Amino acid sequence: MSLESLRMSIKNLFGGFRRAPREKSEESAAPEAQPETRWVIAGLGNPGEEYSRSRHNAGFRVLERIAKSQHVQFDRKKFKGMIAEAELAGSRALLVKPQTYYNGSGECLAAVLGYYKVPAARLIVVHDELDLEAGRLRLKQGGSDAGNRGVRSVAQTLGTPDFIRVRVGVSRPPGESESKDYLLESMSAEARANLDGAIQRAAEAVEAIIADGLERAMGRFNQRA
User: CATH number of the domain that 175 lies in?
Assistant: First the structure.
């Protein structure tokens, strides 16, 4: 037998022991893509039971109302905030309650937007507003912070004021009362009940912004209570 014939015989003998090729579907299989986060909804407030009934926590109350309606919980702590995932008007959204205290809210939100690659235009910040009478809502995008240090923190940390705000009116304190004390004190049961309607409408306004766009939502909710 020639050398060439011997080589061919050996090749044919061991060729049948080659590993069978993988199925095409196995080779091309990839981890299932996660849905894209399209919106971040943030409520401003202060952590801790002592602040839970204060006017300054109106933003937290709105986020909690949204979470309840969507049957989700704030069960993740990340980026110095409590986070819940929800689907609002067909879009994936993160609900965020910053735990950095009101005036440092931007630290948390800048980290969330950066990680999930969500532009500032798709951030909705819900907060109390002294310059609106109690129970009124005002939706807007961009503009000044009107002295609200939480909103100022978000704008400065993001480097832009061009996010959406849902402002929940709490009105200014009567007489010569200090605004800080007025915002941080626990409201009476009657005051909380009076604000509850605005809390519910603010939750509805957030979903309307996502579903119908800001302009239409403004036409619907920027009305007297």
Answer: 3.40.50.1470
Instruction: Give CA–CA dist 198/188, Å, rounded.
Output: 16
Residue in the structure block whose two tokens are 């986060």: 37
11-15, 19-23, 64-68, 170-174: segment of lowest average pLDDT: 19-23
Question: Catalytic residue at 127?
Answer: no
Domain span holding position 64: 39-221
Asked if 166 and 202 count as a contact pair (C-beta separation under 8 A), the reply is yes
CA distance 82 to 104: 14
In tens, the pLDDT along 21-75 reads 444 443 444 444 456 779 999 999 999 999 999 999 999 999 999 999 999 999 9
Residue 137 lies in a domain: yes
131/39 Cα distance (integer angstroms): 27
Q: Tell me if 52 is assigned to some domain.
A: yes
Q: How far is Cα 214 from Cα 203, in angstroms, rounded to an integer? A: 14
Under DSSP, is residue 77 helix (H, G, I), strand (E, B) or coil? strand
Return the residue matching tokens 């993160």: 94
Catalytic residue among 55, 56, 61, 122: 56
In degrees and rounded to multiples of 5, residue 101 shows phi and psi of 70, 155
Q: How many distinct structural domains can be found in the chain?
A: 1
Question: Does residue 95 belong to any structural domain of this protein?
Answer: yes
Name the nearest CA neighbour of 149 among 78, 64, 49, 56.
56
